[in-house]
Structure formats: structure tokens, C-alpha cells
Amino acid sequence: MIYLNINKSGLRRVCYGIAVAILCLPSYRIADAAYRIDSCSVSTTGITFGVYDPASATDKTNNSGTVTITCSTTVRTTGTTATITLSTGSSGGTFAQRLMKNGTNSMNYNVYKDSAYTQVWGDGTGSTFTNSWVGASDNGSTVAVSFTLYGKIPALQYNVVPGSYTDSLTVTVTY
Q: What pLDDT shows up at residue 15?
């Protein structure tokens, strides 16, 4: 399950859905009309790590997913900035080390915004980074922008019990 929060001028809408498509229709004040985004949806493809070998001395990388934000407008939105953040996850991890769970068993992993695995994608606090997009669309248009999620599982997690491990992240879009 992917969770999406959309913020606009202090208003917050929280939408829940599976990783196919999520549609939120936030409300606006008349003063927002010059830069109004009427609706946004988020679609995702999750990160699938495949088989992990806890005895391997190499981190498990080369696994990616995407977050696509699609917004429609009826008013020109040039200059509207959207910031996309990710939560620590539903399994009790932190930005320093997210966790995937299989029952009571856990496995360390993290999500990065760069293919060099140096910028942890989080909420901008501490040592984390966010992604952003500056809107430039004409009246009545729809704009989509995709961001890649780069996943990594650290090597040598000898305590990992065989099984399927999962975690859910919350995607927050603020504009």
C-alpha cells in the first residue's frame, strides 16, 4: 500500500490506495487561483529486490522503482513548486536505516534519490534529501513528472531469516 499526503497552503488531504493510481482533490481559497493545481494523482512502481544473500560482501543494489506525480490545471501554474518527500516507512525504521519486515523479523534497507546511493530520499531533515518539481503548464493542461527510487540492502546481514520482506512508504507532495 502506498500512502499519499498532498499539502496546499496549510490544507492537508490524506489519500490511501494501492500502488496503481491515487487521486486527491484538495480544496483552495480564491487567493490561490493564480497558481492553482486542480488535482494531482500519484502512481508508483515499487522496488523489488529479488533474492538476497546475507553472506554476500556486496550491497544489493541495481533495484529501482518510480514515483510519478500527474497534476491537471485550469489556471496557468508557471512557478508553482512541488516538493516530494518519503517517510521512514511503516516497519519502524529511520531515515538512517529503513526496515522491511517479515512478521517479527526485519531486514535493513534504504531508498535513495540518486543512482550513486549517496542521497537518502526522506523529508529533508537531518541528512536526507527531497525531490522537487517546478510547474510550468498552460491552462487546461496535464503535466506528469517521474522520479526514480533507488533501493539498497546493506551486505552481511547474517541475522536475516528466509522469507518475503516488505515495507510501505508514505509519499507526501507539498505545493
A: 35
